[in-house]
TrEMBL record:
Upper lineage: Bacteria, Bacillati, Actinomycetota, Actinomycetes, Kitasatosporales
Protein name in UniProt: FadR/GntR family transcriptional regulator
HTH gntR-type domain location: 21-91
Record organism: Streptacidiphilus monticola
InterPro entries: GntR_C (IPR011711), TF_FadR/GntR_C (IPR008920), Tscrpt_reg_HTH_GntR (IPR000524), WH-like_DNA-bd_sf (IPR036388), WH_DNA-bd_sf (IPR036390)
Coiled-coil regions, chain positions: none
SUPFAM superfamilies according to UniProt: GntR ligand-binding domain-like, Winged helix' DNA-binding domain
Length: 236
């Protein structure tokens, strides 16, 4: 059976070029959209790798990393050989009740709160013990195992909120992060995403310590958009 609908318009609507900021995360999201929307039914094969890579304007390496995620989570089966490819095994189903409006509300609130706290933190330009705290947490996230990464990631983000200078912002962030972690616990830990996340952490801390408000805000926004893309891909 062919994965291409008549005319191909539906595939084109989903498989447009991804943005460069969160390439891996958005690729996973687009591939899952193909399945969730029924554009590639169970038992059918996804478009060939070359076609997917060209449509999404990504490297074959990134595409294969994304396909491995779908294979590891049981969404597709990758077969080798002349008649091989990535075949849809089952429709991914949400594994949490925190969906729909609540998911979107949480992501929106987090974006507003964290981009704001990054901007405020950079404006204060952490020095001394505050700067060392950020450097230490950055090093801890970089050295963390898969099992410990989320805990150190939470502490780094919480530190940014606390260093915004507002106790209310820090308290509100702690509350929303608890919900975010509950959502994150429902999706797999993806090493390519964590590596990318750590690179963004490094850029964020550098912007904060340099007092670069614009860079801190933009980096945090892009960082959050990557996480949001994965959450929507697996849970929406």
């Amino acid at each position: 059976m062919s994965a291409e609908p008549a005319g191909g318009e539906a595939l084109t609507a989903v498989l447009h070029p991804v943005r460069s900021g969160n390439t891996f995360e958005e690729t996973v999201q687009r591939l899952l959209q193909l399945v969730r929307l029924g554009l590639v039914p169970v038992g059918d094969r996804l478009p060939p790798e070359r076609d997917l890579a060209e449509r999404l304007q990504i490297s074959r390496v990134t595409l294969r990393e994304a396909l491995k995620v779908l294979q590891d989570t049981g969404v597709v089966e990758v077969r080798r050989g002349r008649y091989g490819g990535a075949f849809v095994r089952e429709l991914p189903t949400p594994r949490t009740e925190l969906l729909g409006a609540r998911l979107e509300d949480t992501l929106l609130f987090r974006q507003v709160l964290e981009t704001g706290s990054a901007e405020l933190c950079a404006a204060r330009r952490p020095v001394g013990a505050d700067a060392e705290r950020l450097r230490g947490l950055l090093a801890a996230t970089g050295a963390a195992s898969l099992e410990d990464y989320r805990r150190w990631d939470t502490r780094l983000h919480l530190a940014v909120a606390e260093l915004s200078g507002s106790a209310t912002v820090a308290a509100q962030y702690a509350a929303v992060r608890a919900t975010v972690n509950e959502l994150l616990d429902c999706i797999p830990l993806l090493p390519p995403n964590l590596e990318h996340s750590q690179c963004q952490h490094e850029l964020l801390v550098a912007a904060l310590l340099a007092g670069d408000v614009d860079a801190a805000r933009a980096t945090m926004r892009e960082h959050l958009e990557g996480t949001a893309a994965l959450l929507r891909a697996f849970l929406s």
